């Protein structure tokens, strides 16, 4: 049962990325390319389908590095749905940035165990005004780490898909009438994916994040979803909030990023 559920989650993950990127399937990997935002790491990457041995992994990476260098590309991003031993990637030039993520899951009916703050409400961005507020909250939450210009390009690129894909929606969190956060929700074939979750820094750790999670799980429950999941940095403090909400770790994902 766990294997079957994991496969359904991974299939949903592919559907999510395919909202933004074209995919090229090869024997061992799938290459995702977003021609509209080529400098977006999470839309442009190579996904290894299955675990491979250390020597084979190193050879695969070496070959892909040669390809992107010939094409004068600025980075190579490889992802895999499992953990790796960091020593397996020693002595690469340039040295890669390696991040371990975890898949966390929850049953949507757990939404009624979570509290919502009295001064907070969460709305689906199904009008121009709410979408505009969501874009504003996204840029404000991410401009410090991404830069305002790229943060704006990124959320506007995503907004194109919110308008075109009825299964992918943005939800905006308000404190009274001020947009203070947002989050995506994709629902496909009984699985809900929670993604791109941000609360503006000055409003973090005050219960607003929990309020957003409650709303998304409630929506998933209304739509008869079996399981909801999200992906978070394995070593990030956000994981603790999700645990408090009832999520538990179900699997792992590794990102290998070479800046060239």
From TrEMBL:
Q: Superkingdom, according to UniProt?
A: Bacteria
Taken from the record, one Pfam family name reads: Acetyltransf_1
GO MF term list: acyltransferase activity, transferring groups other than amino-acyl groups
UniProt-listed InterPro entries = Acyl_CoA_acyltransferase, GNAT_dom
Instruction: Tell me the CDD domains matching this sequence.
Output: NAT_SF (cd04301)
* Span of domain N-acetyltransferase: 129-260
Protein name (database record)? N-acetyltransferase domain-containing protein
What species was this sequence derived from?
Vallitalea longa
């Amino acid at each position: 049962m766990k294997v079957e559920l994991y496969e359904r989650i991974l299939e949903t993950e592919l559907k999510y990325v395919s909202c933004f990127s074209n995919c090229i399937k090869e024997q061992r990997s799938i290459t995702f390319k977003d021609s509209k935002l080529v400098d977006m790491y999470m839309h442009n990457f190579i996904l290894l389908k299955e675990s491979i041995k250390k020597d084979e992994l190193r050879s695969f990476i070496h070959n892909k590095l040669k390809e992107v260098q010939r094409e004068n590309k600025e980075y190579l991003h490889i992802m895999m749905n499992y953990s790796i031993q960091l020593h397996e990637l020693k002595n690469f030039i340039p040295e890669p940035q390696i991040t371990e993520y975890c898949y966390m899951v929850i049953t949507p009916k757990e939404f009624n165990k979570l509290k919502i703050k009295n001064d907070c409400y969460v709305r689906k961005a199904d009008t121009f005004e709410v979408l505009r507020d969501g874009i504003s909250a996204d840029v404000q939450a991410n401009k410090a780490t991404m830069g305002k210009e790229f943060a704006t390009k990124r959320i506007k690129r995503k907004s194109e898909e919110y308008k075109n894909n009825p299964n992918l929606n943005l939800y905006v969190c308000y404190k009274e009438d001020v947009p203070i956060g947002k989050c995506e929700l994709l629902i496909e074939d009984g699985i809900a994916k929670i993604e791109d979750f941000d609360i503006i820094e000055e409003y973090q750790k005050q219960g607003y994040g929990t309020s957003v999670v409650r709303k998304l799980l409630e929506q998933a429950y209304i739509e008869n979803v079996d399981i909801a999941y999200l992906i978070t940095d394995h070593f990030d403090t956000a994981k603790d909030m999700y645990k408090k909400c009832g999520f538990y770790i179900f699997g792992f994902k590794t990102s290998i990023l070479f800046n060239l």
